[in-house]
Amino acid sequence: MATQQREQRGDTPNGDDSTDDGYEDHLERSRTVWDRWSDHYTMSENDFEPIRERAIDRLALEPGDRVLEVGCGPGVNFERVRGEIGADGELVAVDYSPGMLANARERVEGRGWENVRLRRADATTAEFDEPFDAALATLSLSVMPDVRRATKTVYRSLVPGGRAAVVDVRPVPSGPARVLNPLIWRFFRWYANWNPDGDVTASIAAVFDDFEIVDTALAGTAYAAICTKRNGD
User: I need a labelling partner for 173 at 20 to 30 A (CA). Which of 12, 111, 162, 215 fits?
Assistant: First the structure.
């Protein structure tokens, strides 16, 4: 019960045993950047709503499911996920930004959602006591200081047969618009502390047993992938 109360308040940071200065620097920049944008998330929320909604559709959530959201931000997916899992389900939402979690907490408390647990943690190293039926990461994995380790956290946290929906951004993958990629790269880096060394699609393809990009938008710079854990590792 004490653990659940700490998660609800969002005041339980997860310890990090990494000593790599680049890792720590990236993590701190992410906190700073997302605290800065925590009260100005409307553009991301509205522009990416269709692809986020379609990705959640593909999770095929059921009443009573337990769901993990990595990089929950201000909680833009909470209402939709709760609508699928019902009052008997549970949503555990993780973010490293205190500003984002403050807005998420306001959303949860304002609606009286008792089955949404908030936790401040570095998703790269976070651990959970119980497995999840499904997981969700929207616009979050690509800003992690170690994308592969964060992906492994999601995989490890799922039950066998569990699915994860990933919505993220990348440079233009093909076509004439690729000439804009240097500018897109700089924008992602400035706006979101995007990790240029972390290849999200390569990481989820390497970690998960099945992986498919099922949706794209904005000239392919936004995409949704569905990943499945088939074994019991």
Answer: 162
